[in-house]
């Protein structure tokens, strides 16, 4: 199920902390993400830009890659943080597709700079998606 209480607060806090590590000298748009595995571990990530813009990587994909590299492939939730004032941060299309690789029934906490959030299922963020099971059809 959904993280609650202290676990949810930790997930949200870790996304904020990750945002503070972002390397974004070009866009000046820091983003942090914290990913909760099915086993209860949290992996965080930040965006990392590059002078060759296409080589940068988003916070969401950084967190997923860290979790995968440590042997985790089942996820329960992700929190995403930015400094977007009055707007909730949302993952880009590429990140949504990478997240989709690991199922559609997990929660994504979209936050505002003030710490408020809304929760969406990944399925809501990427409807009618293509996933690993579609390769077997």
UniProtKB/TrEMBL annotation:
Catalysed conversion reaction? cytidine + H2O + H(+) = uridine + NH4(+); 2'-deoxycytidine + H2O + H(+) = 2'-deoxyuridine + NH4(+)
**List of residues binding substrate:** 47-53
Q: What is its EC number?
A: 3.5.4.5
Which residues bind Zn(2+) per the record?
A: 58, 92, 95
Q: Which domain of life is it from?
A: Eukaryota
Catalytic center at which residues?
A: 60
User: One GO CC annotation, please?
Assistant: cytosol
SUPFAM superfamilies documented for this protein? Cytidine deaminase-like
- PROSITE patterns attached to this UniProt entry: CYT_DCMP_DEAMINASES_1 (PS00903), CYT_DCMP_DEAMINASES_2 (PS51747)
Q: Which cofactor does it need?
A: Zn(2+)
Into which family does the record put it?
Answer: Belongs to the cytidine and deoxycytidylate deaminase family.
The UniProt entry, under PANTHER family, shows: CYTIDINE DEAMINASE (PTHR11644)
Q: What is this protein called?
A: Cytidine deaminase
Organism per entry: Mesembrinibis cayennensis
Q: Which gene encodes it?
A: Cda
